[in-house]
């Protein structure tokens, strides 16, 4: 066997052992980002193809999962975002930071007023609320909540300043809370205190 | 000891387990003294736990999705193709010059480290309002595009404030302006962007209407007849400059950019 051939087999083996096991996680985030299975599959495939081509740039021992997410996020931002971008910019600034606290504290006799609300929120409501987040917010929320990346890792994956990661995460949280609270009101799970 | 405001500004870091040990200790000590903050933290912590759990649960079904098997085999087929391609041609991937350029560019993108200064968090209302105004541009992409000609903006600012605005500085170009009211003071909010899509906010108002935050009021440096006040804390940098009768505040999304070198005043020739 030639050296070159052997090198290639090693590369392939290494890639299958180190990179491929992260496919489920990549697909999960891809699905939430693109909101449809076809695009999510294409996105993950593209990410793996690119990662394989650039495999010798991956530093052995460093965080392979973060590296793969960075590649995928890059492709998503450049090639997929415009397709699925919601045209209406959401104004997050008018949500008070203590919005939910204000809402729940008004009724205020029970020990844990929020538990009552939580018990009535369905998984589907949460899914919808996540999908309704603007792309930029959804990305950081998924990377933090679902994938457990640190602020610093998210900054590197999404090529953002640390301050931007924090502010998007903060605003993403507030939007999620507001959206879920609105569902609860709409479906009569809780009474509007306003 | 920290106050309520400082405690709340650390709330997110604590929820995400990103706060330093010292900060967390300070906050926990504050919560023991302050029932208002205690209530807020308790609620936020339980919402956080709930949301995090739910986000996990709603994504559980993907684990068992039959799609994953076919996706994996598709990927393996693609890898086979690449292996064949590389094996049959003598020009390996990095022997091709354009591919080399692309991969070097990708590598540069991979290297990007944000600086996190550990200065103590001390935030007055004003800083928060200004920072918010600055970062909110991020979610309004239209503000980062050229709206009217920079020339028109400059002459408009000149006629309102008698201020000779720079159209371009340090690679940043003036793209838009809008009015913004922060803490009852009206500001002109100018946006400059550069090729890396960083942006700088320049907020202008009458110095008479604006009260400097108390913690920097006695920290002026005088450079070129300007009083300059530098607020620099944990990833948030704001420079206040008193130029003539105006207060001019600058902030940048790029924490590594030397904000002092950005002069919003046009250089007279
Ligand atoms: Zn307090
Ligand atoms: Zn600050």
How would you portray this structure in words?
The complex is a heterodimer of chains A (194) and B (269). The termini of chain A are far apart. Chain A is built from 10 helices and no strands. Chain A has helices at residues 3-18, 23-34, 37-53, 64-84, 99-107, 113-120, 123-132, 135-146, 151-157, 162-186. Chain A has 2 domains: 3-82, Orthogonal Bundle (Rna Polymerase Sigma Factor, Chain: A); 101-186, Orthogonal Bundle (Arc Repressor Mutant, subunit A). Helices cover 71% and strands 0% of the residues of chain A. Chain A is elongated and about 75 Å long. An 8-stranded antiparallel sheet of chain B has the order 1-2-3-4-8-7-6-5, sandwiched between helices. In chain B, 25% of the residues are buried. One zinc ion (ZN) binds at residues 123, 127, 231, 233, 236 of chain B.
Outline of the structure:
The complex is a heterodimer of chains A (194) and B (269). Helices cover 71% and strands 0% of the residues of chain A.
SSE diagram, text form:
The complex is a heterodimer of chains A (194) and B (269).
Chain A: H1 3-18, H2 23-34, H3 37-53, H4 64-84, H5 99-107, H6 113-120, H7 123-132, H8 135-146, H9 151-157, H10 162-186
Chain B: H1 4-9, H2 11-15, H3 21-33, H4 35-58, H5 60-63, H6 67-88, H7 97-110, H8 125-136, H9 150-161, E1 168-169, E2 172-182, E3 185-193, E4 199-206, E5 221-223, E6 226-233, E7 236-243, E8 246-252
Antiparallel strand pairs in B: 1-2, 2-3, 3-4, 4-8, 5-6, 6-7, 7-8
Helix pairs in contact in B: 3-4
Bound molecules: zinc ion (2 copies).
Search tags:
heterodimer; A: 194 residues; mainly alpha; Rna Polymerase Sigma Factor, Chain: A; Arc Repressor Mutant, subunit A; 2 domains; 10 helices; 71% helix; elongated; B: Protein Transport Mog1p, Chain A; 8-stranded antiparallel sheet; 42% helix; flat; binds zinc ion
């Amino acid at each position: 066997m030639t050296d070159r051939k052997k090198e290639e087999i090693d590369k392939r083996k290494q890639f299958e052992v180190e990179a491929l096991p992260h496919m489920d996680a990549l697909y999960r985030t891809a699905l939430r980002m693109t909101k449809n299975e076809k695009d999510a599959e294409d996105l993950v495939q593209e990410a793996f193809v690119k990662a394989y081509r650039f495999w010798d740039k991956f530093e052995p021992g460093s965080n392979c999962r973060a590296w793969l997410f960075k590649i995928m996020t890059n492709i998503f931002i450049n090639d997929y975002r415009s397709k699925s971008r919601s045209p209406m910019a959401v104004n997050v600034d008018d949500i008070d930071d203590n919005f939910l606290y204000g809402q729940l504290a008004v009724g205020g006799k029970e020990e844990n007023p929020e538990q009552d609300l939580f018990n009535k929120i369905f998984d589907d409501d949460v899914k919808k609320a996540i999908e309704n987040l603007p792309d930029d917010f959804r990305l950081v929320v998924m990377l933090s909540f679902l994938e457990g990346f640190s602020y610093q890792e998210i900054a590197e994956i999404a090529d953002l300043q640390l301050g931007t990661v924090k502010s998007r995460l903060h605003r993403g949280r507030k939007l999620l809370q507001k959206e879920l609270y609105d569902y609860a009101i709409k479906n009569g799970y809780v009474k509007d205190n306003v | 000891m920290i106050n309520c405001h400082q405690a709340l500004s650390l709330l997110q870091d604590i929820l995400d387990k990103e706060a330093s040990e010292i900060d967390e200790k300070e906050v926990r000590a504050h919560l023991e003294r302050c029932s208002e903050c205690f209530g807020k933290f308790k609620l936020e912590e339980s919402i956080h736990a709930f949301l995090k759990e739910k986000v996990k649960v709603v994504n559980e079904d993907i684990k068992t999705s039959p799609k994953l098997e076919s996706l994996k085999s598709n990927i393996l087929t693609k890898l086979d193709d690449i292996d064949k391609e590389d094996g049959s041609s003598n020009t390996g991937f990095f022997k091709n010059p354009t591919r080399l350029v692309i991969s070097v560019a990708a590598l540069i993108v991979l290297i990007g480290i944000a600086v996190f200064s550990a200065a103590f968090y001390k935030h007055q209302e004003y800083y928060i309002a200004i920072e918010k105004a600055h970062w909110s541009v991020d979610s309004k992409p239209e503000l980062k595009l050229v709206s009217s000609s920079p020339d028109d903006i400059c002459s408009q600012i000149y006629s309102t404030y008698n201020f000779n605005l720079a159209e371009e500085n340090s690679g940043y170009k003036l793209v838009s302006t809008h009015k913004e009211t922060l803490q009852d003071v009206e500001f002109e909010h100018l946006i400059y962007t550069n090729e890396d899509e960083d942006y700088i906010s320049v907020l202008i108002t009458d110095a008479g209407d604006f009260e400097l935050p108390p913690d920097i009021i006695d920290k002026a440096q005088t450079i070129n007849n300007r009083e300059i006040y530098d607020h620099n804390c944990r990833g948030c940098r704001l420079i206040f400059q008193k130029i003539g009768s105006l207060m001019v505040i600058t902030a940048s999304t790029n924490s590594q950019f030397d904000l002092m070198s950005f002069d919003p005043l046009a250089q007279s020739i």
